[in-house]
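Sequence, please.
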């Protein structure tokens, strides 16, 4: 069973591979804000809208000192195609056994669809924001960016 995480908790350690097989660890991003968003599946309506919204706001995240990392259970090959098709400038990681999703408290909607949940993690690895909403992908982007920008003021 997935452990529920709360604002103020230390983000769970993870390491996963991207579409070219490069290993990424959460610790690689110490010292900067990280938006880790879990989404159900590449090339589906809401997931594509969410990814494109992150793409369209990516420079704003970078300006705010944040990195964006998308995680799903899709294969590295699927991520490569999805990223190329929509010109995604951020990292997509493959969590093929959903172990990292579970570490972050992700579940499945009706036992079928993996959860859509976004975390904003600060420079010290502390969770500053959690947004869980399966059908409103673009709202994840707006809220995450707002939290980071407000923390910089």
């Amino acid at each position: 069973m997935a452990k529920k995480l709360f604002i103020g908790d230390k983000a769970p350690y993870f390491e996963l591979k991207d579409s070219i097989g490069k290993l990424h660890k959460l610790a690689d991003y110490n010292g900067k804000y990280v938006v880790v968003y879990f989404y159900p599946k590449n090339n589906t309506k809401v997931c594509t809208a969410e990814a494109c919204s992150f793409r369209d706001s990516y420079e704003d995240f970078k300006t705010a000192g944040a990195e964006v990392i998308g995680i799903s259970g899709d294969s590295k090959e699927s991520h490569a195609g999805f990223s190329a098709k929509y010109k995604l400038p951020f990292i997509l990681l493959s969590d093929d056994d959903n172990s990292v999703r579970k570490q972050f408290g992700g579940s499945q909607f009706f036992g079928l669809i993996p959860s859509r949940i976004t975390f904003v993690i600060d420079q010290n690895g502390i969770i500053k924001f959690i947004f869980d909403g399966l059908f409103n992908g673009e709202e994840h982007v707006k809220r995450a960016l707002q939290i980071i920008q407000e923390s910089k003021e």
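The domain at 32-152 is CATH 3.40.30.10 (Glutaredoxin).
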